[in-house]
Design goal:
By secondary structure, the protein is an alpha/beta fold. The protein contains 20 helices and 9 strands. The chain has 2 domains: 49-142, uronate isomerase, domain 2, chain A (Orthogonal Bundle), CATH 1.10.2020.10; 152-467, Alpha-Beta Barrel (TIM Barrel), CATH 3.20.20. 48% of the residues lie in helices and 8% in strands. The longest helix is centred in the C-terminal third of the chain and has 20 residues, at 422-441. It is globular and about 65 Å long. The N and C termini lie far apart (50 Å).
Length: 473
């Protein structure tokens, strides 16, 4: 059977009349504020037209790469030397095996919208779908900017290195489009020590970008501050940190400074407490974020780059990351409490990757709301491996039970693909189905306007108010 209409219909995932009403009348047509992505600002600035479906859909998508490897596909047909057409064909062969994985739903949602494809992707339909989509991708209505408008995107926050000159963002926001594209300050490579040579190279580049000689911790923090000011002048209002965990050591010490200076001088085998370094620098950055009224994000719990062979072959972000089993509570509490105690805690979003930590993160967020704004410290949306129906429902239920779901800022794509905006539709359908089911059972009020307003807030208005992305850079 090739027609998918029998399952991917207008009421897909909506299993009650109340859910149908909530989605179609309250959620469906809202604009999208995508506050955390890995989209390329260069591709947006150039209003790129992708040559083919492989280019816009498969390249850089480690979700699909993992599935193809699990299905027994040779690496040459995933990230290797094979042609784009061959890679797509092997993805089409893989898709029927993704039943039960969110990739099955995402794949067909992304083909249906925006391409209008209403067939299963499999070896029989692959050639036709590839050619049909490729033809559309050559038209003006399928350029990158047109796709963002087609998906009703109002704001995009990219993820950017502190040394980036942000010229793409400046060019984008001079365009008379209805959406804005904001940079996000992501200093992971500068505040974590994995290899001393790599850190020294990063610090050298930071000093050049900030026009400052870095000789100790104070000058290092000052260089980061100058880059934050530069980002702020280009419309940045968000930082992001992808860490395994928050270190418990967050205070300055003379020994830490001396160790850091030893690293800067490239002494043989310098001894430095890597957690103490990360914790202290992070705490200082957080104070700067607060002073500029930024939002700070913490993505915690990933065990990255497990497969050395694959990383050597493909590079980082090759699809060899997994859920880690780190301890988060004490370090996270220490950082947030330290900042709160001095009234320097910025708006904060906490994302966990291990579902065993759902309740930990939800309750930790609740410790530090201070009544200044609604939902100041957020339990962030289900992330990465949890970004699927079961994970989304668990996150929503945990937030509801241990916080105020009505204050939730909702979904973000966290994606490198310009076709991934169907994930917002996916999330909204799951949200409406969850609320609709509770309304039908009588555990939530049957007042559609009341619950519908909460749905709208979660899908759009809470994020709009939280990030304050109204004005262009």
């Amino acid at each position: 059977m090739s027609d998918i209409q029998f399952f991917l219909h207008d009421d897909f995932l909506l299993q009650s009349k109340k859910a149908v009403t909530l989605y179609h009348e309250y959620a469906k047509h809202l604009a999208i504020i995508d506050y955390h992505t890995h989209l390329s600002p260069g591709n947006i600035s150039s209003n790129k037209k992708f040559e083919n479906l492989t280019g816009i859909w498969l390249k850089g998508d480690h979700y699909k790469w993992r599935a193809m490897r699990a299905a027994g596909v040779d690496e040459k047909f995933i990230t290797g030397i094979s042609s784009d057409k061959e890679k797509f064909i092997y993805w089409a062969k893989t898709v029927p095996q993704t039943i039960g994985n969110p990739l099955f739903h995402w794949t067909h949602l992304e083909l249906k919208n925006p391409f209008g494809i209403k067939k299963y992707l499999d070896p029989k339909s692959a050639d036709e779908i590839y050619e049909q989509c490729n033809a559309l991708l050559q038209t003006d209505s399928f350029s990158v900017m047109s796709l963002l408008e087609k998906f009703n995107v109002e704001a995009v926050a990219t993820t950017d290195d502190p040394c980036d000159d942000l010229h793409f963002h400046q060019a984008i926001n001079q365009d008379a489009r209805r959406f804005s594209v904001r940079p996000t300050f992501r200093p992971d490579a500068y505040i974590q020590i994995h290899e001393i040579p790599a850190l020294l190279n990063n610090i050298q580049q930071l000093g050049k970008a900030a026009d400052i000689e870095i000789t100790d911790l104070d000058s290092f923090i000052e260089a980061l501050r100058k880059r934050i000011d530069f980002f702020h002048s280009h419309g940045c209002r968000v930082s992001d940190h992808g860490l395994r965990y928050i270190p418990g050591s967050i205070h300055y010490s003379g020994q830490l400074d001396r160790s850091f200076q030893s690293v800067l001088q490239n002494h043989p085998d310098p001894v430095i407490n890597t957690d103490h370094f990360t914790g202290y620098v992070l705490s200082e950055l957080c104070k700067i974020y607060h002073a500029r009224n930024w939002v700070q994000q913490f993505h915690l719990g990933a065990l990255r780059n497990n497969n050395t062979r694959l990383q050597r072959l493909v590079g980082a972000d090759c699809g060899a990351d997994s859920i880690g089993d780190y301890r988060h509570a004490e370090g996270l509490s220490a950082l947030l409490n330290h900042l709160d105690e001095s009234n320097q805690l910025a708006k904060t979003i906490l994302y966990n990757l291990n579902p065993a930590d759902n309740e930990l993160f939800a309750t930790m967020a609740g410790n530090f709301n201070d009544g200044t704004i609604q939902g100041k410290v957020q339990y962030g949306t289900s992330w990465w491996f949890l970004d699927q129906k079961d994970g989304i429902e668990k996150q929503l239920r945990t937030f509801s039970a241990m916080g105020l779901i009505s204050t939730f800022i909702g979904m973000t794509t966290d994606s490198r693909s310009f076709l991934s905006y169907s994930r917002h539709e996916y999330f909204r359908r799951i949200l409406c189905n969850l609320f609709g089911a509770e309304m039908e059972k009588g555990t939530l009020p049957g007042d559609e306007k009341w619950i519908g307003k909460i749905v709208q807030d979660i899908c759009y208005y809470n994020a709009k108010n939280y990030f304050e992305f109204d004005s262009r850079a």
